[in-house]
Amino acid sequence: MRVSTLGTFPLQKPHLPEESSKTVTKQPLPEMVSSLRLLTLTSLFSPSFTRRTTVSLRRRLHLRPPLAAGFSVQSAASSPPETEDRLDHKKSSRAQDPANTDRVITPRSQDFNAWYLDVIANAELADYGPVRGTMVIRPYGYAIWEAIQDYLNVKFKETGHSNMYFPQFIPYSFIEKEASHVEGFSPELALVTIGGGKELEEKLVVRPTSETIVNHMFTQWIHSYRDLPLLINQWANVTRWEMRTKPFVRTLEFLWQEGHTAHATPEEAEKEALQMIDVYTEFAYEQAAIPVIAGRKSKVETFAGADKTYTIEAMMGDRKALQAGTSHNLGQNFSRAFGTQVMDTLALSESKSKIRKFTDENGQRQHVWQTSWAISTRFVGGIIMTHGDDSGLMLPPRIAPIQVVIVPIWKKADEKTGVLNAASSVAGTLKTAGLKVKLDDADQRTPGWKFNFWEMKGVPLRIEIGPRDVSSGSVVISRRDVPGKQGKVFGISMEPSILEAYVKDRLDEIQSSLLQRAISFRDSNIVDVSSYEELKEVISLGKWARGPWSASDADELRVKEETGATIRCFPFEQPQGTKTCLMTGNSAKEVAIFAKSY
Questions:
Q1: Strand partners for 474
Q2: Domain spanning 404-506 has what CATH number?
Q3: Which of 166, 196, 349, 455 has the fewest CB atoms found within 10 Å of its own CB?
Q4: How, if at all, do strands 437-439 and 404-408 pair?
């Protein structure tokens, strides 16, 4: 089949679920129809893509084998001096793996973007796909996404939603039905124009989002108020033809969940939209340890086709904002776009036409009220950029694919069996307690190399077991979030009940510590402003500006043009008292947060 994009359609990027918001400039529809072109191979392998791939290959050749080149000096230097066997292995690991002392992760403070890409490559989260702008999510990266899925699936079902699946191909005529929707999505659409060697009668859109096809099917299913509310969710892939990409944060294809609901009243739809942004907020705080700010998007930043958009905004380590999840109150925009008038219920059942009205309790025909909401693999990028350090990933225990790694240490052949038996017993104890445990008993790598490797992967706790630990019936435990000796505790008993309780307590401490650290960082980088000059100064320093706002859309666009910052949201939590708009000097009801964003 032939796939083409509307790449020449002269629109700016819209506000999209899980994507940065952009302003939409209206253009006549015929222009985009005439812009269909078949992508050539050369366009898929641009100079920037080739350079990036070369760098990735160079890193891989340098790192694998040995992977130790990807680890920081800090963790190697903090290996424990408490026993002779640990000292010997520390020295031997440096001698056998000289790459251990090389720093191939760019320091965050030096180049945040390079650091981010280094961590993704070295921690084996993802790699570049052969098509420009795509990525291959590797098992460890996908395991983090699975942890997100596991939590949200439970929450969705607790709130009455059912999972289902809609086709990836959508008739182009569906996209055209809602004017602001087609206007917003046209720059990023991928179209199929040939199938089975023949030109298609109607172009097919490769799913950029599913509001249109969901509404088409809702027309077949909703006939009466008794059919409402209709609450569904799907886990799927999405294609948006992005020109500038960044692994996890913005790619041509990504994974997400998208919820779609239909309701009998506007109040029910609003309640649903707010409920789901609350679910996302709870997940961000309690599972990902990311202190997002929840609020309402401005009119300029609202999703194409929605009445209101609610968002959770996260501050990354470089102080840019990441839109980490959105929930949209669609009003009746899509139901009206897909509706035709009928006089009664009988006409509806006989025609089987695309009706978006339902018969209410009074026998009157009404359009339904709808919502949609989504979180994507972008959240994995948010976890990396919120918690990671110069040593690599730092994963919150509740979403870590591996919570505890056990590294056995021996020097002599006659020590190996006893150490491995003890390590296996400890692993069994912790697995029985419901923890995610990895026993790294491979003898091709030194203990020092393993320490660095699992630090790179962000494993929250490391347990070390050597011959003396076996003799004393104890272990050494190191925390990923506290580097060096400060994070290492000796002499923790192997007795199952004691060890289990200790490890669980430490994991809880790490979860809490990462959240508190992120809160402190966020709060120290949000500055209250009362004038436009103050806003510009704060943004120039790379921080977030918070101030009263009641100015026009044109003023909002001026801020974006002059500072590069956008209104991230009007936070739900608002300060009390009178407010004066920082731009106009007029009275303001709310404060807004401005920041540069991904």
A1: 493
A2: 3.40.50.800
A3: 196
A4: parallel
pLDDT at residue 358, rounded to an integer: 53
Is 232 exposed, middle or buried (CB count within 10 Å of its CB: 0-12, 13-18, 19+)? buried
Q: How many C-beta neighbours within 10 Å does residue 555 have?
A: 15
What was the pLDDT predicted at 357? 57
pLDDT at position 360 is 57
DSSP helix/strand/coil, 497: helix
Amino acid 558 reads: R
- All residue ranges of the chain with pLDDT < 50 are 2-103, 340-356
For 42-79, write each residue's pLDDT tens digit: 333 333 333 333 334 333 333 333 333 332 223 333 33
Give the fold, CATH level 3, of 135-168+210-345+363-387.
BirA Bifunctional Protein; domain 2 (3.30.930)
The answer to whether the CB of 223 falls within 8 A of the CB of 349 is yes
DSSP code of 481? T
Q: Where exactly are the structural domains of the chain?
A: 135-168+210-345+363-387, 404-506, 529-596
Q: 529-596, what's its fold? A: Translation Initiation Factor IF3 (3.30.110)
Q: Taking the model in full, what pTM does it have?
A: 0.81
> Using CA atoms in the order 564, 567, 568, 572, what is the torsion angle rounded to 10 degrees?
160
